[in-house]
UniProtKB/TrEMBL annotation:
GO MF term set: lipid binding
Keyword Iron-sulfur attributed: no
Stretches assigned to the SH3 domain: 555-616
A GO-annotated cellular component: cell cortex
Assigned keywords, A-Z: Cell membrane, Coiled coil, Cytoplasm, Cytoskeleton, Endocytosis, Lipid-binding, Membrane, SH3 domain
Gene it is expressed from: fnbp1
Keyword set includes Cell membrane: yes
Segments of this protein annotated with the region Disordered: 293-318, 332-367, 485-547
Protein family (similarity comment): Belongs to the FNBP1 family.
Broad class of the protein's primary localization: membrane
Protein name: Formin binding protein 1
Domain of life: Eukaryota
Taxonomic source organism: Sinocyclocheilus grahami (Dianchi golden-line fish)
Biased composition (Pro residues): 336-358
Gene3D superfamilies, per the entry: 6.10.140.470, Arfaptin homology (AH) domain/BAR domain, SH3 Domains
Length: 626
């Protein structure tokens, strides 16, 4: 059925209907746009959720458990899942929203042109009708004038009193009016014929053609709406296989969880390598001998403090299962320190920018006083440097992983050695590639200057030498750990520390790692150092000499830049020049002083406010002091 034949008189209604159709296209476009925004927001929220629960750097060790890896794989699959919803939004924007927006503009232009032609045709018909009406009124008026002129002539012709001239004049006037009426009749007939022809053409040719075009436009709009609805469904259907793969991946990783393997991994993670403590020997107090204590217990009692123990009415023996004993609380309790000096203003000129600082020797005295409170004579302390480092560096771990049990320390050292070997291999590969490039430059000088490669080769050689030295250092620690790993044998028996002291020669080497093990698996530097201090008493002077002469050089933990000049006139300090770059070997412990090193022979303390410190990334809790 055609709109041109059936709706020839519904021009205004068709105009309203087509406008409503265009409005519906725009309404549907807005709907798809809002759906696309919903998909984008959903994908963004899914990505944020996955990012929020991604493992942090400190949680990377959790990947050794299958259930942790399954969860991390689920988060990755969820990222892919979010990406598919972003793809939905992208396809809807490009395939539906953009196309419908462009088509809506086209259909608006086409509709405007069609209805403009229809209005123009209507105006032509109306103009023709007005012309016909004008001709008709003129013909009617002329006919009436001709009848009046004829009646006036007949009246004068019948009157005998009227002259012949008047009668003749009336007759000529009547003839003229009849002629005008005849001309108006012909003109009216012509206009009528023309109007009928134009009207017939308007309602049977022009309007049907225009309405037919409008009908085709409307049908095309409806067809395009159907295609858009189909695309709307296809965009969702296209991602279903990939979403199914994401869900299948989550199912597979869930099925890959191995409880037995995870429970075995706990053993690998926390196995200390220590042997369980042996039986405690019977101590016969009836014999005339010194009271003995277990060699694996931690105590702060002295051999001559029997009267003090009886007066207090309780034992001072603290077993290793106690998390914090009195000795450690004394060692780790905060020590009153001198506040750091105020840094001078760069613009201000002061003769002495640094007040009299507290020297490192003065900072050692409270620690020795605490030992004097616990012991009759000041002991010789093995590895006092690492003891002080373990107590004062807040939250940092030793480079040799000596804070870990032997088994865990061995694994950490082995992993560190493997990483260093990988870095060495990378540097060697770069060196080989640059060497080949240099050979090519030597054979073909036009390709490049061979000497331009030498600085990079020298840098790589220095890096390799540095990495090999570091690897050798860690291999030495690993050999030390493997040499002290306990072998499965008969359970050891606990013996008296004082008994061994009386019947054996105290060790002379400064091996602090051997004094860190405890039977219950606790592995700290401080208690073991205290036990050694009880076993090997010595004067305060000899202990300080041992510490200063035999301790190993501290490794650098970062670099620093001097902000101001410091004279370093006091003992234990070092002078620096503004802008000088130095190495940091011990960070500020809260007393306002930082220990730095210029070279192997020059090191000392400077006020923390005088330098800008850059700690290495492997130093835990690294911060910058300004």
């Amino acid at each position: 059925m055609s709109w041109g034949t059936e709706l020839w008189d519904q021009f205004d209604n068709l105009e309203k209907h087509t406008q409503w159709g265009i409005d519906f296209v725009e309404k549907y476009t807005k709907f798809v746009k809002e759906r696309s925004e919903i998909e984008l927001n959903y994908a963004r929220q899914i990505r944020n959720l996955s990012k929020k629960y991604q493992p942090k750097k400190k949680e990377e060790d959790d990947n050794k458990y299958t259930w942790c890896r399954a969860f991390h794989s689920t988060l990755n699959e969820l990222n892919d899942y979010a990406g598919q919803h972003e793809l939905i939004a992208e396809n809807m924007t490009s395939q539906i929203i953009a196309e419908l927006t462009r088509y809506a503009q086209e259909i608006k232009t086409e509709r405007k042109a069609h209805f403009h032609d229809g209005r123009k045709a209507q105006q032509q018909v109306e103009a023709s009708w007005k012309q016909l009406e004008s001709c008709k009124r003129k013909f009617e008026r002329d006919c009436k004038e001709a009848d009046r002129a004829q009646q006036y002539f007949e009246k004068l012709d019948a009157d005998i009193n009227v002259t012949k001239a008047d009668v003749e004049k009336a007759r000529q006037q009547a003839q003229m009016r009849h002629q005008m009426a005849s001309d108006s009749k012909n003109e009216y007939s012509s206009c009528l014929q023309k109007f009928n022809q134009e009207q017939n053409e308007h309602y049977y040719t022009i309007i049907p053609n225009i309405f037919q075009k409008i009908q085709a436009m409307e049908e095309k709009r409806i067809e395009r709406m159907g295609e858009s609805l189909k695309t709307f469904a296809e965009v969702d259907r296209q991602i279903l296989p990939i979403i199914g793969k994401c869900l299948d991946g989550i199912t597979q990783v869930a099925e890959s969880i191995e409880p037995k393997n995870d429970s075995s991994q706990v053993i690998e993670s926390y196995k200390s390598g220590f042997e369980p403590p042996g039986d405690v020997e019977f101590e016969d107090y009836g014999q005339a001998m010194k009271r003995t204590v277990s060699e694996t217990s931690l105590t702060n009692s002295r051999s001559d403090s029997k009267a003090d123990r009886s007066s207090k009415g309780k034992s001072k023996t603290l077993w290793p299962f106690i998390k914090k004993n009195k000795l450690m609380s004394l060692l780790t309790s905060p020590i009153p320190r001198q506040p750091p000096p105020d840094p001078p203003s760069p613009s201000a000129v002061t003769p002495d920018p640094c007040p009299t600082p507290q020297t490192p020797k003065q900072s050692k005295e409270p620690l020795s006083h605490r030992f004097n409170d616990l012991m009759t004579s000041k002991p010789k302390m093995h590895c006092l440097r690492s003891l002080r480092r373990g107590v004062s560096i807040r939250g940092s771990n030793p480079e040799d992983f000596s804070h870990l049990p032997p088994e865990q320390r061995r694994k950490k050292l082995q992993a560190k050695i493997d990483d260093i070997n990988k870095d060495i291999q990378k540097e060697m590969d770069q060196r080989d590639a640059l060497t080949k490039m240099k050979e090519v430059y030597v054979k073909n000088p036009q390709m490049g200057d061979p000497n331009s490669v030498d600085p990079r080769l020298a840098e790589i050689a220095h890096n390799i030498e540095k990495l090999q030295a570091e690897a050798q250092k860690f291999e030495g620690w690993l050999a030390e750990v493997e040499g002290r790993m306990p072998v499965k044998s008969d359970p050891p028996k606990r013996t008296s520390v004082l008994y061994e002291t009386q019947n054996s020669t105290p060790p002379t080497n400064n091996n602090c790692a051997q004094d860190r093990e405890s039977p219950d698996g606790s592995y700290t530097e401080e208690p073991s150092s205290e036990v050694q201090s009880k076993v090997q008493p010595e004067t305060a002077e000899s202990g300080d000499e041992f510490d200063d002469a035999d301790e190993e050089m501290l490794p650098t933990i970062g670099t620093c830049k001097a902000l101001y000049q410091f004279e370093g006139a006091n003992e234990g300090t070092i002078s620096v020049v503004e802008g000088e770059l130095l190495y940091v070997i011990e960070e500020d412990k809260g007393d306002g002083w930082t220990r730095i090193r210029r070279n192997e022979e020059e090191e000392g303390y400077v006020p923390t406010s005088y330098v800008e410190v850059f700690l290495d990334s492997n130093a835990k809790g690294a911060i910058t002091y300004i």
